[in-house]
């Protein structure tokens, strides 16, 4: 037993020494890496002082979302209307989710960042987006974080699901459980760009389902659904419907940017 304990202590000491050496090497190489690969603005590519920071010009074009807003869909209000006030659209046709929040209004810079992640082969942008979205994370323990899924053919063509990358970064920052395959996209749908709300709704009808092995984990839990852009709510509502049928107690939606009429 003494020999085993000695071996364990030696292994721990060796691991500690290796970690210290790696940390020292990281500090030593940082100036070299910063010179060769300097951090750049996620919006325009201008060199910045630190990673995940926007240059002044791009920063001033960002429009952040928060209170006062619709308690349900985060539509910004011009002035404070009191607690738990919903917008006219949510009152007329309540969404399938309980609450949505987004970091930014969908505008030129937020659009550019989203496209870099979605089509530009820049997976590191997901960490930038997650940092700005994190302030809207619900203060609730035990949530399941799940991305809006892509169809498998689209993942194979693109190489990744951008919403899954954002969800992973968010969950890592908050110490939350992630289930990247919680929802499956079973129907291949065309891009929703250019469609009206009703057409979008019909296009995604029946496109999603909960994987059977996850149903027990979902029942009675809060699910945080993560996506990049919220436009009409058709995709979020379709995902919320299958989560609700699986027994989710509450459905939160968190996005990088939200389309607001006249927001750009």
Short recap of the structure:
With 264 residues, the protein is α/β, with parallel strands linked by helices. The protein has helices at 2-36, 56-61, 88-92, 108-118, 125-133, 152-158, 162-174, 197-204, 215-218, 234-245, and strands at residues 99-105, 144-147, 177-178, 183-185, 208-210, 222-230, 250-258. α5 (125-133) packs across α7.
Computed over alpha carbons, the radius of gyration is 21 Å
Strand order of the largest sheet: 1-7-6-2-3
- The name CATH uses for the topology is Rossmann fold
Q: Please write the string of helix (H) and strand (E) elements.
A: HHHEHHEHHEEHEHEHE
Task: Report the biggest beta sheet as strand number plus sense, adding barrel if it closes.
Answer: 5 strands, parallel
Q: How many domain modules?
A: 1
- Contiguous runs where pLDDT drops below 50 for at least 5 residues: 21-26, 28-36
The total strand number stands at 7
Question: Which structural class do you get from the secondary structure elements?
Answer: alpha/beta
What is the helical fraction, as a range of percent? 40-55%
Q: Roughly what is the average pLDDT, rounded to an integer?
A: 86
CA-CA gap between termini: 69 Å
Assigned CATH class: Alpha Beta
Number of helical regions? 10
State which percent range the strand residues make up: 5-15%
CATH architecture assignment name: 3-Layer(aba) Sandwich
Shape: globular
Describe this structure in words.
- With 264 residues, the protein is α/β, with parallel strands linked by helices.
- The protein has a single domain (56-258), classed as Rossmann fold, CATH 3.40.50.
- Helix content is 42%, strand content 14%.
- It contains 10 helices and 7 strands.
- It has helices at 2-36, 56-61, 88-92, 108-118, 125-133, 152-158, 162-174, 197-204, 215-218, 234-245, and strands at residues 99-105, 144-147, 177-178, 183-185, 208-210, 222-230, 250-258.
- The strands form 2 sheets. A 5-stranded parallel beta sheet has the order 1-7-6-2-3. Strands 4-5 form a two-stranded antiparallel ribbon.
- Helix 10 links the parallel strand 6 and strand 7.
- Helix 5 packs across helix 7.
- Residues 21-26 and 28-36 have low confidence and may be disordered.
């Amino acid at each position: 037993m003494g020999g085993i304990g000695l071996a364990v202590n030696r292994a721990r000491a060796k691991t500690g020494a290796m970690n210290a050496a790696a940390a020292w090497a990281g500090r030593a190489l940082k100036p070299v890496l910063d010179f060769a690969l300097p951090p750049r603005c996620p919006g325009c590519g201008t060199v910045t002082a630190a990673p995940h920071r926007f240059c002044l010009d791009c920063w001033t074009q960002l429009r952040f979302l928060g209170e006062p807003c619709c308690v349900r869909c985060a539509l910004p209000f011009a002035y404070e209307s009191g607690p738990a006030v919903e917008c006219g659209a949510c009152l007329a046709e309540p969404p399938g989710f309980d609450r949505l929040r987004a970091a930014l209004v969908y505008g030129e810079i937020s659009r550019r960042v989203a496209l870099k992640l979605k089509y530009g082969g820049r997976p590191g942008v997901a960490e930038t987006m997650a940092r700005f979205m994190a302030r809207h994370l619900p203060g609730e323990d035990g949530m399941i974080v799940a991305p809006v899924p892509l169809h498998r053919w689209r993942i194979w063509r693109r190489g990744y699901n951008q919403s899954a990358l954002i969800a992973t970064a968010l969950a890592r920052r908050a110490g939350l459980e992630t289930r990247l395959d919680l929802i499956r996209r079973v129907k291949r749908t065309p891009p929703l760009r250019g469609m009206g709300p009703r057409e979008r709704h019909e296009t995604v009808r029946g496109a999603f389902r909960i994987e059977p092995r996850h149903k027990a984990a979902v029942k009675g839990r809060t699910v945080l659904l993560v996506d990049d852009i919220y436009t009409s709510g058709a995709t979020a509502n379709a995902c919320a419907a299958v989560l609700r049928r699986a027994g989710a107690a509450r459905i939160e939606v968190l996005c990088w940017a939200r389309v607001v009429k006249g927001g750009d």
